[in-house]
Amino acid sequence: MNDFAPDSGYAPPPLVPSPSYEPPTPPATPQLPRSTQLLNQIRAAVEQVFVGQTEVIHQVLAALLAGGHVLLEGKPGLGKTHLVLALSRTFGAGFRRIQFTPDLMPSDVTGHTLYDLGSQSFRVRYGPVFTQLLLADEINRAPAKTQSALLEVMQEAQVTIDGETHALQPPFMTFATQNPIEQEGTYPLPEAQLDRFLLKVLIDYPNAQQEAQIVRAVSSAAGGRGLNPNDVPPVCSTEDILQAQREAAAVEAVESVVNYAVNLTRATRNHGAIALGAGTRGAISLVRVAKSYALLEGRNYITPGDVKRASLPVLRHRVTLTPEVAISGQTVDQVLESVIRGVEAPRM
């Protein structure tokens, strides 16, 4: 007898419907650190008024994270003042500007004591360096003695007036602008002061499309006040910036990448086109800026690419070309690029 005959009382099990197809859930996008997100917002805010200078803004933010000073070089009218003022607005930092001129005195920069007839006592009149973001405009138009008045401020974040030391409020940064040295009425910066700048950032003309965008934005506002840095909205607080600086300092730097930074710096001392190479502070600065670049991209470790990207702005003001090379028209950046090509980067 067939056990599966219809009259056997057997009923086949009900069919189980096939589950509908559901595509796999894509992996979640890694969350960027909060500091990286804030810095991206700062970059976007500054770019609203400082158009066409993405790499310049990136380098300035790296210096901010590293707590270093910046030397800005470019022709007049390229928005150097706009850049620093806009940056100060993004995190509510104090901002002061000093216009350097041939008759500017050191006490005009740092401050001095004066006798108050009302109280019949001496009191301190604080100079414009008592701020957080200091813009030293056209610093190479003042003589060396006045330029050197910034030396202690940049190195120690403090000012000594008549023997009394006054600390500055962090984060403190000096942004010094200078016009190219071939222009008349300029004085070369002392080597000791040049070395105090973490970066030398070059600002060039925007391209034609970006320049047209600037012209439209400025000319369409009443009184030609478009792209006003005072209109930049706040993004975060100074405490957020200080926290980001601590995070940047904690970024991991493996031994091979640190050695790469050292080798790049040492190579500048043994190049035939360079009369004076970079010192140890150059290697330190390479690693500090590389850490900033890593945090700007949301990483907690540096790569040889970070060091290589930092090389030109970190080293260009720390080397001196031989007279023969300088006369030939070869630039510092061209020589440094040949140095970089000659140093093997470690593999990660």
From TrEMBL:
Residue ranges annotated for the ChlI/MoxR AAA lid domain, each copy included: 266-337
A Pfam family: AAA_lid_2
Region (Disordered), start-end ranges: 1-31
Highest rank taxon of the organism: Bacteria
GO molecular function, one term: ATP hydrolysis activity
Domain ATPase AAA-3: 69-199
Family: Belongs to the MoxR family.
PANTHER family: MAGNESIUM-CHELATASE SUBUNIT CHLD, MOXR FAMILY PROTEIN
Protein name: MoxR-like ATPase
